Amino acid sequence: MAKQALILIDIQNDYFPQGKWPLDGVEAAADKAAQVLQAFRRAGDAVIHVRHEFTSDDAPFFTPGSEGAYLNPKVLNEGSEPVVLKHFVNAFRETNLRALLEQRSITELVVVGSMSHMCIDAVVRAAADLGYKVTLIHDACATRDLEFNGKVIPAAHVHDTYMASLAFGYAGVVSAQEYLQAQAAAA
């Protein structure tokens, strides 16, 4: 039987309304991530939290040791759930994430978190390239408006574009409700 792990990417305080880099819809996405997290805990499946810190105090957000760089209370790690500290967009780069997955014989990943167009995109593509089967919970991810060539791209369009791209060849992309219903039916 395949062994799965939930990977929570960068659900940190600076992304919330009181933080330095708030994301569109982050509260609702974190609530969905918390639902999936509780299901993993009840099932006894592996949970790994990933937290980003920049290496410089003059970073725009996630400055080292700041309150904004801490995991949000909605998804705090419990017990033996590891927290992987990363300094790059890709959670596999120069971290122990892959070693943690290998130690647990994990073959399937479920991914939630932020930002859809950065760290979520990077970890999903890297995981698929490393041979993991990936499920991405689209409504448990958040992003923000982007600007390109003088045009503002609304966060909802950014998010949908990245979810569509990842669904095309890297992951199964489903809602939290769809995922949780499928898990309940399989139990």
UniProtKB/TrEMBL annotation:
Pfam families cross-referenced by the UniProt entry: Isochorismatase
SUPFAM superfamilies: Isochorismatase-like hydrolases
Keyword Transport carried by entry: no
Transmembrane keyword on record: no
InterPro entries per record: Isochorismatase-like_dom (IPR000868), Isochorismatase-like_hydrls (IPR050272), Isochorismatase-like_sf (IPR036380)
Domain annotation Isochorismatase-like: ranges: 5-148
Entry-linked Gene3D superfamilies: Isochorismatase-like
Transmembrane region(s): none
Protein name as catalogued: Cysteine hydrolase
